[in-house]
Amino acid sequence: MAVDVPHFALPFQLGPSGAVVCEQDSIDDVSNCVIAISVTHIGWRTEVPTFGIPDLAMRKMPIGADDINSWISNQEPRALITVEERADQVDVLIDHINVGVSIVSKGG
Question: pTM to 2 decimals?
Answer without folding.
Answer: 0.83
